Amino acid sequence: MQIYGSLTALQIPIPYPMKTVTVLLDRPADGPVTLVDTAIYTPEAEAALAEGLGAAGLGWGDIERVIVTHHHPDHYGMAGLIQERSGASVQMLDVEIGRSERYWHQWDAWLPGHIKHLRDHGAPEALIETVEPDGRRGLARVRPAKQVEALREGARLPLAGLEWEVMWLPGHSDGHLGLWNAGESLLIAGDAVLPRVSPNVSLYAYSRPDPLGDYLLTLGKLSALDPARAVVGHFGPLMTGVQERARDLRTHHHGRLDFIAAEVAREPRTAYELSLAMFPRNLSDGSRRAAMAETLAHAEHLHLLGQLGRTWEARGWVYHP
Ligand SMILES: [Zn+2]
Ligand SMILES: [Zn+2]
Predict the structure, then answer these.
(1) Which parts form a coiled-coil structure per UniProt (predicted)?
(2) pLDDT tens for residues 17-61?
(3) Quick one: which H or E segment has residue 127?
(4) CA of 263 relative to ligand 2 center, distance in Å
(5) What pTM was computed for the model?
(6) Secondary structure class of 78 (helix, strand, coil)
(7) Is residue 296 part of a domain?
(8) Is residue 170 a part of any domain in this protein?
(9) Cβ < 5 A residues, ion ligand 2
(10) For 158, how many CA atoms within 13 A lie in the half-sphere containing its CB?
(11) 265 CA from centroid of ligand 2 (Å)
């Protein structure tokens, strides 16, 4: 699907409920052949991306630049593969490079801290036991880039014959990148805003201390920007009504904050215990850990605002009024 001029969107299959991820391909008359995001590293995604390139008369070796919105496997997964095959420059926001390295290059060194963090917030041992095998399966779906160049917030770069401003849109990930062209009122948004689902906002051992606070500021930025159109990572490639969606997402998170505050007032609990109230359905271990990280982002936001206390007890950090 054509987005603007030489910029087109491919929908690449991913083994997640969202089904596909958007990969942008730019083949300008004058400028580097560029991908924005790469999709996950699975045989299906690799074949679909090869087909998309082929339809544009391109092969792997023709890619000169890869811009990655954030380090999650469905966006970053093939960055290393593409770099190995083409020598392309892989570029990410400066803040995100460290997150990506810690996660994909130093996973073994980082794992004990991750496990301690889960345990400290009340995760039971049965939920801890599957962290390592689940994590190793995830690692197999990412081929990380050996060299990544840093982009800085406010920098300008060319794409599809236009000049774009690099934006920092943290929350869903610490160094989430957006690209903004004011003339076209077009935002390349990745997962910073999505139709249909609320982008997950999670607190992990390696996150900035208040990802939800970051995300609420990002929603304010998106609201103020009021793009006519946004290219989104899932359920797109294009969405309109970003300002209204940003307001709805803010209301959604405020509702969750109220829920947590009310639950804690009823009975002080760990983030894990609160996650059972916020997400009461039976979940797989991976989804339960994600639910816990999302709950923790909300509880910790209230704690950092001084609206909830937190004390250390035998079962971990317990939030109280
Ligand atoms: Zn993501
Ligand atoms: Zn995604």
Answers:
(1) none
(2) 999 999 999 999 999 999 999 999 999 999 999 999 999 999 999
(3) helix 125-129
(4) 30
(5) 0.97
(6) coil
(7) no
(8) yes
(9) 74, 191, 233
(10) 9
(11) 34
